[in-house]
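Title: Prediction job returns without error message
Component: structure pipeline
Severity: low
Priority: P3
Assignee: unassigned

Description:
Job completed but the reporter wants confirmation the result is attached to the right record. Sequence as submitted:
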Amino acid sequence: MPTIKGSDVHKVVVACDAGMGSSVMLASQLRKQLAGQAVTVEHTPVSSIPADADVVVVHRGLADRARAIAPDTVIVPVQVFIGDPAVNAIVTAVKNGSDLNG
């Protein structure tokens, strides 16, 4: 399981497949929460995860696909895109430089 220090996170990708819009809202929310940090947040289909992603947030049903596409990247599966504690853990790790596992 890959680990990254929050201080080494420069790109967070929110990946989805359903097109329901909640993942787009999460990407926007993360941009606001990480404002002032040296981190970009992108939204992409799970099949198009960029190679330079440091952390990928996906619905837990897509986690295996994300790991297959980006095996050396920290994958953070969530149950729900909005309000999931795993998302708070990403923000906390980036802000205080602690380890993030995935």
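Comment from assignee: result matches the submitted record. The two ends are 6 Å apart (CA to CA).
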